[in-house]
Amino acid sequence: KVMRIGENGDRLTISCDKFKLEEPAACKQGLHLLSKRLSMLGAGNIVVEKGRVDADVQVSKTSPRDFSATLLKRGAKERITGKRLEQAYVLESRAGSHGRGSVHIRACSDLGIFYGLLSLCQLVERYAEGDICVPAVKVADWPEIGLRLAKTSASTLPLPDLRNFATWMPLFKINLMGLQYHGTNSHQPGPFVENVQAICSQARRVGILETVVYFCPFRGNGYDFNSSADRRKYALFLQWMLDQGAHGIEVDYNDWAGKGTPIEDVINLACRAVAEKNPQAYLLYCPPSRGSSVYRGPASVEMT
C-alpha cells in the first residue's frame, strides 16, 4: 500500500516535541538530505513546526531504557545497548487524515533520528499520479555491529576528496572513518596533519561519523623507540590527534619495523598515552597476517 504525503505543492511539515529538531548537527544533516531528496523529486520545501499533531512527519525522542524495551517488542532477540542503541530507530508510516499518510520516527538519540530520516529519504517517491508518497511500513532498525569502519589515506588524498568521502560514508551507514598515514617521513607528516585536524574536528562537531587515525612512526628516518625523547614525542602526537577530535588511534602491525622494540610494548605505550588524554577513546590493533604476535589487554564490550 502506498500513501500520499505532503500538501501545498508537496511541502512536507515535520513536527517534534520537547527539543528543536534543527539544532543538533546530526538532525540538521538528516533534514538537509531529506530536503535534497524532495528537490530531486520536484517537490517543495520542508517546514518544521514544533508540536503540530497533523504533521506529515512526526519525530520523537525517548529515553534509552524505554527505547531499548521498544526494540525488544519490535523483534530484537536481546536488549540493544551502547553504540547499537544510539544508531537505532523505529519508522512507521500509516494512514492519516484527509486521505494523506503520516510518518512517525522515534529514537533515543540525535544519531538515531538521523538514520531514521536517512531511511525516509530512501522510501519517499513520486508516483505516476504526481503525488509524493511513501509505502505503508513498520521498520525497526539497529546495527548488528556497532562500529563499521572504512579507511582511506589522509596523506595522498586532498582535503576536498576526504570531505566527500566523509559525506558519502553515512549514506551507506558506515560510521567509523579511518585516516591513514602514507607519508615518507614520519617526523614530517606533511598534509596528513592538516587533513586529520580538519576531518576529525568536523566529524566530532556533527556527531554522525567517528574517526580513528592510523599513524606509522617508522617511515623514512622515523622514530627510535629506544630513545625516551622519541617515545615521548610519539605519545604527544597521539594525544594531539585526540585533541583534534579523533575518537581513537590504531597501531598497525603491517607498519611495524621492529627497531628492537616488541610490538606489545608499543601498544602499551599507546594505551597509556591515549588513556591519559581520553580514557573513552578507541585503541585499535591490526595483527599480522603472517607469523605470530600475542597481546592480552582490556577490551570494551564494543571492541570485543
Textual characterization of the structure:
There is one protein chain. Helices cover 34% and strands 21% of the residues. It has 8 helices and 14 strands. The chain is elongated, with a radius of gyration of 23 Å. The mean pLDDT is 88.
Strands of the largest sheet, in order across it? 3-2-4-6-5-9
Anisotropy-based shape: elongated
Question: Helix proportion of residues, in percent?
Answer: 25-40%
Which regions are unreliable across 5 or more consecutive residues at pLDDT < 50?
A: none
Q: Give the distance, in angstroms, between the N- and C-terminal Cα atoms.
A: 42 Å
Percent of residues in β-strands: 15-25%
Tally of alpha and pi helices: 8
What's the SSE pattern? EEHEEHHEEHEEEEHEHEHEHE
Structural class designation: alpha/beta
Largest sheet: 6 strands, mixed
The gyration radius over C-alpha positions equals 23 Å
Please tally the β strands and state the result.
14
- Summed over residues and divided by their number, the pLDDT gives a mean of 88
